[in-house]
Specification:
With 136 residues, this protein is an alpha/beta fold. 42% of the residues lie in helices and 26% in strands. It has four helices and six strands; from the N terminus they run βαβαβαβββα. Strands 2-1-3-4-5-6 form a six-stranded mixed beta sheet, sandwiched between helices. A hairpin with a 2-residue loop joins β4 (75-82) and β5 (85-93). The longest helix is centred in the last third of the chain and has 30 residues, at 106-135. It starts with 5 loop residues before the first strand and ends with a helix. The model has no long low-confidence stretch (mean pLDDT 87).
């Protein structure tokens, strides 16, 4: 059985901002896509299925992106600079808006990211197996 790839959309002004995460995601078996705008990201989410969307900073059209992810099975985190570094702020968790959910420091986010990728892969594998059983 071929491993199911976890689909990740990276939204930001530059791929360089995601370089550390990109390596981690690819090693974890993720298929990563990049776009430089939230508006284009919203269109991609509407046209394709993503498991995880990571958005850097306060970008124009971020509400469009959040709206596109709501109702899907995807999770969306925003990277926000703060005085002492940065936070990863959850905006949508598995399709549900989550205003007020606690932000994560980068080290916390790295662990959470590994968990999210593992869970997305497990869910996707279960869907594939269920579909194969239904065909028999």
């Amino acid at each position: 059985m071929n491993p199911v790839l976890v689909r990740v959309l990276l939204v930001g002004e530059s791929r360089i901002g995601f370089s550390c995460l990109l390596e981690r995601l690819q090693k974890g078996g993720c298929q990563c896509h990049f776009t430089a705008s939230c508006v284009e990201g919203a269109h991609l989410v509407a046209d394709s299925s993503f498991d995880l969307v990571l958005c850097s900073g306060q970008m124009d059209g971020s509400q469009d992106l959040i709206s596109a992810v709501r109702g899907s099975n995807a999770t969306l985190f925003r990277y926000v600079l703060v005085e002492d570094g940065c936070w990863w702020v959850p905006a949508v968790l598995q399709g549900e808006q989550c205003a007020g959910a606690p932000a994560l420091w980068p080290s916390e986010f790295a662990k959470a990211l590994d968990t999210m990728v593992r869970e997305a892969r497990t869910t996707a594998n279960m869907q594939v197996m269920t579909a194969r059983c239904a065909k028999k």
